[in-house]
Amino acid sequence: MTFARRIQLPLFLLFWLMVLSAAYVIVASSPYALNPDLLSFAVTIDVAVLVPLVYLGLARRFGWRLLSVVPVLVISLIAANTLIPTDHQRWLHGIELLLAPLELFLIGLLIFKVRAVRRGLREQGAGTDDFLEVLERVLMKVTDTDRPARIMATEVAMIHYGLTGWRKKPSDISGRKTFSYHRSNGHGTIIGVFLFLILVETAVLHWFLLPRVPWLAWLVFALSIYSCFFLLADLNAARLRPIFLEHGDLHVRVALRWRATIPRAAIVRAELNTLDIEDRDGLLAAQLAGNQDVILHLEGDHTADGLYGFRKSFNRLAISVDEVGAFVEAVNPEIEADTMQDGS
Question: Could you tell me the pTM of the whole model?
Fold first, then answer.
């Protein structure tokens, strides 16, 4: 990639920052107070219209995917909502109203693409029909990005698992040996306790802060609702996304938190863990709660994908499973039966 191509996106981000800074200065200035309607119109056009149009022009010029303008548009609208006082958002509401059909179309297109890809993978017998993984593939293809697509995928997957699939069972694909990890550790009970505590503390804090610091009260309320929603999505994802062996690969999935694919040949040994781990170098502790049941020692370094595109390199993996003996035997057939019984 040439230097000119490398600086295209940073230059646009700099332009975007300059527009937002200028908009902030305008809204905070004394002339704005004298003529808020006219200047609100100017700020709305600059932030919510000019920025996406400039990005769209650059995308056509430099071969970026045109649909990657969507996150730019969404962030620009959020920024405009934040900058412009509520009483002077008439022009902004008009733009949002015009864009509503486009937003519905894009959401419908995204859902259609995800379902089509999942159906195609099932028909091919690929086994990789997981909603989060397929969603990332689609978003990466649509936006031609990596980290932003993974961040968006995390948010959409949270909505998906939080609202849907509570009566659904994990997909049963021929040739796949699955292992659950959410029953023996009482994950559902732990989540229930956390939800109860969050709701009680939120109610008390909201009642205390609302007459004193209203913005902080609503911020705490919003963060608490977000936390509750994440916990519910994490609970449902743990149930629907088991660990599984397929085609010689071990697919480790821990709710929405971690996922990694490890070739069976890369597993040097699997051992039962009965003590706390002191050496954390190269270790990925991927479990929902409590102690890790199994330590996998691996050949070479491997990468796990976490929330919001975060990645971690590891050569040892510590996990918990409900059927410890069956899991160790599946990934480490040479282990002796009496050793498994002694360690369980």
Answer: 0.66
End-to-end CA distance of the chain: 54
Burial 103-112 (b: 16+ CB within 10 A, else e): eeebeeebee
Shortest CA distance to 142 belongs to which of 66, 73, 58?
A: 66
Q: Indicate whether 40 pLDDT > 80.
A: yes
- CA dist 10 and 7 (Å) reads 5
39 belongs to a structural domain = yes
Whether residues 261 and 236 share a domain: the answer is no
Q: Which whole number is the average pLDDT over 6-21?
A: 82
Residues 236 and 247 in one domain: no
Instruction: Kindly tell me if the per-residue pLDDT of 3 is higher than 70.
Output: no
Asked whether the beta carbons of 292 and 246 are under 8 A apart, the reply is no
Clarify whether residues 22 and 89 are in a common domain.
yes
Helix, strand and coil in the chain, % to nearest 5: 60, 15, 25
pLDDT at 164: 81
Residue 133 lies in a domain: no
Domain boundary among 203, 222, 240: 240
Give a yes or no: residue 25 inside a domain.
yes
Q: Is the pLDDT of residue 53 over 70?
A: yes
Amino acid at 22: A
| 10 and 98, same domain (yes or no) | yes
Query: What is the spatial distance between Cα 136 and Cα 142, in angstroms, rounded to a whole number?
Result: 10
| Residue 320 contacts residue 301 (beta carbons within 8 Å) | no
Q: Is the pLDDT of residue 254 over 90?
A: yes
Q: Which two tokens stand for residue 302?
A: 């491997």
Domain range enclosing 77? 3-102
- Bridge partners (DSSP) listed for residue 253: 259
Q: Between 59 and 252, whose confidence is greater?
A: 252
Measure the CA–CA gap between 84 and 297, rounded to whole angstroms: 55
User: Are 245 and 330 a contacting pair, CB within 8 Å?
Assistant: yes
Determine the Cα–Cα distance for residues 188 and 194; give it in Å rounded to an integer. Answer: 10
Q: How many CA atoms lie within 13 A of 230 on its CB side?
A: 14
Helix, strand or coil, per DSSP, at residue 136 = helix
Q: Which of 87, 102, 117 represents a domain boundary (last residue)?
A: 102
The answer to whether residue 170 sits within a structural domain is no
